[in-house]
Amino acid sequence: MNSQTLTQNNRKYDARQIARFHRLRPWLGWARATTIVWNFAWFILGLKWDDLRGVAERNKLKRAVQLRKILVRLGPTFIKVGQALSTRPDLIRKDFLEELIKLQDQLPPFDNAIALRQIQSELGYPIKEIFSELSPAPVAAASLGQVYRGRLLTGEEVAVKVQRPNLRPILSLDLYLMRWAASWLSPWLPLNLGHDLTLIVDEFGTKLFEEIDYLNEGRNAERFAKNFRNSPDVKVPAIYWRYTSTRVLTLEWLNGFKLTDTESIIAAGIDPQEIIQIAVTTGLQQLLEYGFFHADPHPGNLFAMPDGRMGYIDFGMMDQLSETTKETLVDAVVHLINKDYTDLAGDYVKLGFLTPDTDIRPIVPALEALLGDAINRNVGEFNFKTITDEFSKLMYEFPFRVPAKFALIIRSLVTQEGIALSLNPNFKIVEVAYPYVARRLLTGESAQLRRRLINVLFKDGTFQWERLENMIAIARTDNNFDLLPTAQMGLQFLLSDEGQFLQQQLVLALTEDDRLHAQEVQRLWNLVKDDLNPSRVLGAAFGVLSQFSRERVAAILPSFPASGSVNSN
Ligand SMILES: Nc1ncnc2c1ncn2[C@@H]1O[C@H](COP(=O)(O)OP(=O)(O)OP(=O)(O)O)[C@@H](O)[C@H]1O
User: Fold this and answer.
1) From 202, 213, 296, 340, the catalytic residue
2) In this predicted complex, what is the ipTM?
3) Model pLDDT for residues 466-498, shown as the tens digit of each residue
4) Which structural domain, as residue segments, surrounds residue 76?
């Protein structure tokens, strides 16, 4: 295998192939390892020296800056490690975290001439035969590539993302060394990582190799766009496949405002509140509905479009949640709403935050103290950033760890909340999130969601009237929530085979304790009556019944006339 094979053919990360290549060329590894060790040795000596002189506290900011500079000097792999660590409050000191977050932007660009040569060789045409205009310098430089603004000969405005040169061999060598170090260090580290360290390096390598395959990024963008194809709120740039390769990505230019640019957003007459609403709702949709989520939603990757839509870019780092994880997440939200802390602790085990052998008994009261108080104060005061900060404290007391996937999700949620807060300092994530979850449960399009709703509504076999009331009240604070279609779906479900159990339970609930729960029904009715005007209700009821065959309707409602006016298609 020559270096050409390693650079050209390894679209996917393959630890064994990389190891085979480098074992035959040990000098490459030694040279690089010396540079890395040299940089970090000075840094660690510096920390120790501060300790000895008792100035560690005073110098901590200086050391954090020094660490960031070392990572930038060591190049893309280390910048990416720094970015990944900046999401791990369970592993990294807070002052270092704040410095590492800066690795997301403001990186030095690479030579223009190299970038232009790369565009020509990758796309197979001279620049002039593709673009009528191309910015003389990159408009942005990031860890893995830089972006030019241009116009195709056919007139469309485009962003052209060009990868830094020689990324594959650089990343491969660094990953090889990291993996080697991980296999030696694993047994000695007192870290509560819960995994073999080499597996973490492998996961990191896999993600990194995916990220430098721009064809993959293009496919991700199209998949994301497909998920939101019916949404009037989301804009995803089109990919120009003809001018896209593994190392050059040409996509539609988004003429919007970055979400950090509040002034321009307001000046353009866009309502920041609406953009926030879209950002949070689409964020939740990605996690809880599609499971395919943008794992890097920093403000540079989100745009407010002049027409009020929100634009997403940069689909290099996406992640897919399994069906079970998605369901457990919804469960966790349900348990949180219901204040079922024992079940919530159980969800943490299922999601991998706690190992299955953990004794959750002492954790339950701690969760209650942390979350119960936050929720009790006022739903609107529940702030995600405070909760995660508090949660980081729990991590030191109990054997919590953050599974890699959730580090991305948590970072994504905290960043989104941060962006929203910069647009509206009074923003409360739950004011958007709660209604969204309540609405989803109540409209329960899938069998799993309906089952979850039933879990919310019944505790230990007893129907929880209050919960239904709360949920309807919360859902109604969401402008998109229309009670009637929900009621229609509920009726549809009640009449289905699957709903038979619920029918029985509801009858039991209504007559529980040998009394008719008329008061509760009356309260519910007061809550919903304004939404239910009689003609719409009748229409909706017929809508439901029309989907059943005449025989089925007759079976459910024995007194219904078999030759009635219900449409039987
Ligand atoms: N379609 C686009 N329309 C307008 N601007 C764009 C577009 N694509 C990229 N940019 C600009 O280029 C910057 C970097 O792009 P992008 O985030 O895709 O690169 P990246 O190398 O993946 O960076 P990182 O992963 O660090 O965010 C964006 O913040 C934005 O300013």
Assistant:
1) 296
2) 0.96
3) 666 666 666 666 555 555 556 665 666 556 665
4) 9-108+168-210
